[in-house]
Amino acid sequence: MKYFIATLGTETNTFSPIPTGRTAFMGARDWFRTDGSLQATTAATLPLRTWRARAQADGHEVVESICAFAQPAGLTLRAVYEELREMILDDLRRAMPVDVVLLSMHGAMIAVDYDDCEGDLLAHIRAITGPRTVIGAELDLHCHLTETMRENASLIITYKEYPHDDIVERAQELYDLATRTIRGEIHPVIAYYDCRMLAIWRTPYEPVRSFVDRMQTYEGHDGILSVSFAHGFPWADIPDVGAKMMVIADGDEAAAAALARRLGREIWDMRDSTVASYVSLPDAIGMIRDNDSSKLIVIADVSDNAGGGAPSDNTIILRALLDAGVDNVAVGCIWDPAAVALCIEAGEGATFDLRLGGKCGVTSGNPIDMCVTVRRCIRPLLQTGLSNGQATLGDSVWLHTAGIDIVVTSNRQQTFAPDAFTNCGISLDKAALVVKSAQHFYNAFAAIAERIIFVAVPGCVMPDMNGLSLPRRTIPMWPHVEDPFA
Fold first, then answer.
1. Is 280 exposed, middle or buried (0-12, 13-18, 19+ CB in 10 A)?
2. Looking at the whole model, is its pTM more than 0.85?
3. Structural Rg of the chain based on CA atoms
4. Which of 73, 101, 185, 232 sits CB 3.0–4.6 Å from 180 for a disulfide?
5. Which domains are delineated in the chain?
6. Are the C-beta atoms of residues 40 and 98 closer than 8 Å to each other?
7. Per-run averaged pLDDT (10 residues), the chain, 486 residues
8. Cα separation, 407 vs 445, whole angstroms
């Protein structure tokens, strides 16, 4: 049999000031024309590597198209999306006939004039392959599940974990179900349930942890093939925004719909106990003051998370640290390519006045003018990314000012792991580390932190669901209304 595989994705924040252009895809580390599965392990290449290895081990032919994944940001330019889509479609036409198409996509990619890039791509692929080809998609759980996706995909699998440390497991699951489908062993049908909710669910925490574990126990029993909880991505003003339950059953759509509804109602019923909690910035500063270096505090700057489309150059927390006079703290990672270039030109050991951050827009805060010392230049700075893949922060510098160490990068990316600091030479023997991330940092930093706290200052992905303006979502949503099902 012949398997066709490809990766195309980004997560679109319609409130982000940074448009997603051609360079965001084709100038990035995760851009490969036909051989992404043979390249270094990243979150984007992992599914391709998994599918190629499995298919070849089973004696199947593999045709690989593009691997293109852009850092989350604002709307993708229309011409850019269409160019990437046509690359995949042209490769598919040349490869026809194919038995199975496996796609790694985000599920929340929006382009100018395209609210649902994934659904659009799936529809174009189905038009080429016809009804007999099995089309499967692996999505991030922060996706927008749409009817166009459901109508054109044979199978849809989302990650179950946040942080997303199960990318390979979900790729394996999709391959297994797709192979069983093309062999005629199963006949998958997909059902959604709209939870009508905007929220953040952290899977390591109860009661979400137990729910995710419990929903998986239905898989493989009574005709249920797969269960996914799609958290949705709230920072997108489109009609399909919001959380959904998805169940795939073997030929029994009523059973799939019934279980999706039951599990979706469980999510609704535990809404008050799953609301994410945040510490105020003054309280966080107080915790640092009271701390000693033997008990590391990790502070998540969730509102400036590049993984949600934020610029990652917000200066509010750094400004507060400087104003409070606290020291023995490290902050990372601030995106400021211009500052990095100047510091590299100045060289290690140089001390000079620098304007840092606050450059992308109103959600970035104000630039900070300060005297810094360049402790080290790293070209490039690498960190451990999702599912232990390698991620690059590009040319980067370690700056020191007023007892605070700062990692400044030329690639915009959230902080995933402690090696974003240690690969610069920064010791983790600190009173606190401030990381620009919402959740993906958690597993790696929990191993070294005495305490992890989440701080939500004004920013591009501030987790204030009541403050989100989503006029294009016409169906009532919690917490905008107390009971969206009334």
1. exposed
2. yes
3. 23
4. 185
5. 2-273 (3.40.50.2300), 281-455 (no CATH)
6. no
7. 98 98 87 92 94 98 98 98 99 99 99 99 99 99 99 99 97 99 99 98 97 98 99 98 99 99 98 93 96 88 98 98 97 98 98 98 95 98 91 97 98 98 97 97 96 96 94 95 96
8. 16
